[in-house]
Amino acid sequence: MTDISNFPDTPGKSEKEYSKWFVLTAVTFVTCLITANIIAVKLINIAGLILPAAVIIFPVSYIVGDVLTEVYGYKQARQVIWLGFFCNILAVAAIWAGGLLPAAAFWDGQAAYERILGFAPRLLMASFIAYLIGEFANACVLAKMKILTGGKWLWTRTIGSTLVGQGLDSVVFVFVAFSGVIPLEGMISAIITQWLFKSCYEAAATPFTYMVVGFLKRREGVDVYDRDTQFNPFLMAE
């Protein structure tokens, strides 16, 4: 396995060339993110825990994010995180515009459309801010831990980075979205519940993460270590 610090700047690959496996991984990440935001409106009951339905798919975006950072490095993960952010804005804008357009006279689903697909501005802002902070923290922690561990003990960095990333995501979202709306005790309870559920989800998926990471490293012939990477999330080119 080749230890490289930049992808796709490898021999035989041009600056703008991306493999089908990288594209597939990036598309999966973005799909998980957009799907999670759409289904989050439904509240579900799992073993007595009240959670948004997004918990069935949103943690997968962190798993895929781990794969991106572990295999392709922080710089490529950073691009995909921003891609997911802008794709999500596009989806929200399209849904909002669809709600504004006049409905056909025979269509009686406008109220349902607005109830299910309508987005409160405060919740959107909370979701966007929490996503960026959580995902970048997750990628940064994993990349740095990979260097510290010399690429060993993948499970320590996938779980460790998730504890940090999901923790920050939950804290930021709940406080931005619900400060002044629900009591502090309720917010703390919601943060802990979501954080633990998502972290346990990631831990349970560790064997799958190992399998995907191993497959991609073998097929791509890359294993990126971000030793000289600048971790500024707003730096789009190095």
UniProtKB/TrEMBL annotation:
GO cellular component, one term: plasma membrane
Alphabetic keyword roster: Cell membrane, Membrane, Transmembrane, Transmembrane helix, Transport
Main location: membrane
Topology in membrane: Multi-pass membrane protein
Chain's role: Involved in the import of queuosine (Q) precursors, required for Q precursor salvage.
Family to which the UniProt record says this protein belongs: Belongs to the vitamin uptake transporter (VUT/ECF) (TC 2.A.88) family. Q precursor transporter subfamily.
Compartment list: Cell membrane
Alphabetized PANTHER family for the sequence: QUEUOSINE PRECURSOR TRANSPORTER-RELATED
Keyword Aminoacyl-tRNA synthetase in record: no
Pfam families listed in its UniProt record: Vut_1
TM stretches of this protein: 21-40, 46-68, 80-107, 119-142, 163-184
Matching HAMAP family: Q_prec_transport (MF_02088)
Organism: Desulfonema ishimotonii
Keyword Transmembrane helix: yes
GO molecular function: transmembrane transporter activity
Record-given protein name: Probable queuosine precursor transporter
